[in-house]
Specification:
37% strand, 2,3-Dihydroxybiphenyl 1,2-Dioxygenase, domain 1, alpha+beta
């Protein structure tokens, strides 16, 4: 699992509605092949972003304006499989507490994305992985 990454820019987009899908990530061992697949299948645009030692591409809809992303693609570093979906929450701490009370397991605790918000990765009782995202209000 990787953390949510987006360009740290101010936009005029409205805050996401609570409990809606706000971001997804695709782990891959072959970024060129997989990005070409989705470019040809859906017309998605991929923009490599500087992320230190990590290979990370932001994904945009073919008609999206600049700096509007919907997901990310990254080079696998472990045995990650499948998409990781990020859901908007108003209070990440309360959402983590509720999820664990309901049987979820925290895979990656609350972490800050500077100027963007916070995220945490959990697994539901059947080991399906997903993430919470709380925007900072500065998006």
């Amino acid at each position: 699992m990787r953390f949510l990454m987006e360009a740290a820019t101010t936009t005029t987009r409205p805050q996401p509605r609570e409990h809606t899908l706000v971001h997804f990530e695709i782990p891959t061992s072959d970024p060129a092949k997989v990005s070409q697949f989705y470019e040809q299948l859906f017309g998605w645009k991929f923009n490599k972003m500087p992320a230190g030692d990590m290979d990370y591409w932001l994904i945009s809809h073919k008609d999206a304006p600049e700096n509007e992303t919907m997901g990310g693609l990254y080079r696998k570093t472990m045995a990650e499989t499948g998409f990781v979906n990020y859901f908007s929450v108003v209070n990440i701490d309360q959402s983590l507490a509720k999820a664990t009370d309901l049987g979820a397991k925290v895979v990656r605790g609350k972490e800050e994305i500077p100027n963007i918000g916070w995220f945490a990765v959990v697994q539901d009782p059947d080991n399906n992985t997903f993430a919470f995202f709380q925007p900072s209000g500065r998006m």
